[in-house]
Amino acid sequence: MNKQSGIHYLREHREAGSNRPVPAEVTRIRDTVVAGLGDLLQGAFDAVDDSLFELANNARSNNEQNRYFEAMREIRIKRKGVERHFQNTVAQYFANPPHTGPLQEENLSKQANADTLSLVGNDDLEEQVALNAMITKAKAHFQGPLLQLQTRFSQVYPEATEESPVNPMAPEHLCSAFTEAIQALEIQIRERLILLKQFDRYVVSNLGMLLDEANRILIQAGIIPNFRYHGKAGKQHEASGAKTASSAKGEPDTADTSTRDGSQEYAGSSAVFEQIRQMLALQRANAGIPPRASDPAVRVIGDSELASLLNALPIANASWQNQSNLSDGEPVSVDLRQLVHQLLQEEADHGDGRKPALNEVDEDLINLVSMLFEFILDDYNLSAPVQVLISRLQIPILKVVIRDKSFFSRSTHPARRLLNSLARAGIGWSNSDEKSKDKLYDQIHNIVQRILNEFDGDVSLFEKLNQEFEEFLERENRKASLVEQRTRESERGRIKSQAAQQTVDNLLKEKVSRYRLPQPVHDILMNGWSRVLFLAYLRDDVEHRWNSTVKVVDDLIWCLHPHQEDDERDQWVRVVPSLLKSLRSGLEEVSYNSSKLDEMMGQLKHELAEAFRTNAVIEPRPNATPSPDEDEENLSQKQTNKRQELDDAAVSEYVVQIDGLQIGNWVEFRLVNGANFRCKLSAIIDEADCFVFVNRMGLKVIEKTRIELAHEMRRGRLTLLEQGALIDRALDAVVGTLRSKTA
């Protein structure tokens, strides 16, 4: 990341828009945001450069390749100007904030209806669609922080009203500033879309930290320090705030209901769950399902009553309740909706004649738990034994969620943390692992068994189990880390030794093969001095003796050449004593046989003296005419090289993914016989372009070069595993699924 990061523009920003006073806290936010956006934009432009370079390398024609290189050159030349324009425009927003529209997606859809889009050219339409998608995604993902910031900024700026709020950091304003800045770039639509894609990936998708920092600064300044968000844009309450208008009219307010149940954190920080609830509500509305509370024939089941009904539900299935190994067999799929429906039918038989039904919040929670486990049961990143074990916990987690709705809104919820820890710890398991002798497997198995046997609705059990599991992992990871460190050091030493030996062999082969050297000289170089070169290569980063040891070889061969000029003969007389001294000391350092050393040095002196006395020419080795077999071998080598070039072009896109691998990332290899194993990247040894992978215990399992890994990925034998928190990944997948259904 560029250390300048746009901070050197802050003086310009302060001067720009200085026609009106800006509050101190806004100035602080502006400086932080402009600098942060500058850093993020650096990453976006670097990614654009990489993408265009890859496209140019894989281009199918010269014209296409030139197009990408021209676009790359255009962006590189004007990059600083675009960055400056973007940051100046954002800074202006804080001095003269534009009015911000509502946070719902309908606003964007109105802007892009069929009538307006029919008047737009195809290229502009593609760009507008990409921008709308970017803005919509950002508003949905950062809905909570954006609403809080908009409310607080509307308190800061006097011209803001409830109907016309302001937020200088709204996604549509930042996207507008960027599209305005890139107008100076003379590039075609495909390259512009690449630019927008990377802006979305590196800037818009990372707005969360800047939004949080802006909210924190305003909170410190005392601007609405206590904020309650009830999921409706523009409906916010201070800590002592009143009811919403819908509550005042007697309409049911599900957010207030949850607050009365003691879930204030759920009401205040569950932006993701609130977004999911809105999409589920939209599905119900599209299906024509009326609100439950408006039907007199329906009796809505409260949270406490539903929790009591669920308590009567057996946590463990009778078929595996007494099973010694809970990870045997396939993952268990439980239809939670059908299960709760049966409970309600049984309750109807003892009721007042009205049909019992869930309120919308509880129904959404049950649907969400079902979708959560649907993702878990399909998640390839989970190892098979962990997947089966976690599948046993569907009913316990449902009971947890009904009692404590903060499961989805609070990442530190004990049950959520435990599930994440189990998935993360078991990522390195392979189907071939011997589970019966594995301490980690026993620990996870016992945790699941205890939840099935002991959970009675008290969430503190999850907290206790998670604490015990974290302590166990800390001990195990400490042992594995020591083994892995020794493995890593051993591999680095071995690979560096191989590289040293290869370098020495190539060097001596290249220098010695030119001439027919006297046998004593040949022997002392190949059987003695090669050891000195090997040691010097390994220690060169500390002792820096490699070049001097190579010079000894060059000096020795030079001294065997004829020297007839007086200057050369004088130089010979000066060089030989120090040469002999260097040869002896170097060979003694590598513990060369002392008795044999004296004999070899004596023979060497004789050869040098004879060469000086007779001025005999070292006979060069003739260039041998290649035999038919050698011709065939050379042809085969050329064909092999050609195939390698074609293969390298085919795997170039996979090389980019391999370059994204980081130390600690987990992968899965599939063998030709169908078996598979999981391992972790432990070291990348640049000298040999070598990637070293270890198992969970820190022991080496495989090593491959970057190109070999790319070929494995191309053949479908290598899979990169996602290591994000399980529940977070599941929620993201659920949001994506619901959005596609409601689109």
- Rounded to the nearest angstrom, the distance between the terminal CA atoms is 37 Å
Count of β-strands? 9
Individual helix count? 31
Mean model confidence by pLDDT: 77
**Class from secondary-structure proportions:** mainly alpha
| Rg, Å, rounded | 36 Å
Beta-strand percent range? 5-15%
Shape: elongated
Runs in which pLDDT lies below 50 for 5 or more consecutive residues are 1-19, 103-120, 228-270
How does the major sheet shape up?
Answer: 5 strands, antiparallel
Region (Disordered): 1-21, 235-267, 616-646
InterPro entries: DUF1631 (IPR012434)
Protein name: Thymidine phosphorylase
Written overview of the protein:
The chain is built from 31 helices and nine strands. Helix content is 63%, strand content 6%. A hairpin with a 4-residue loop joins β6 (676-685) and β7 (690-694). The protein is elongated and about 125 Å long. Strands 8-7-6-5-9 form a five-stranded antiparallel beta sheet. The protein has a two-stranded antiparallel sheet with strand order 1-2. The longest helix is centred in the middle third of the chain and has 53 residues, at 460-512.
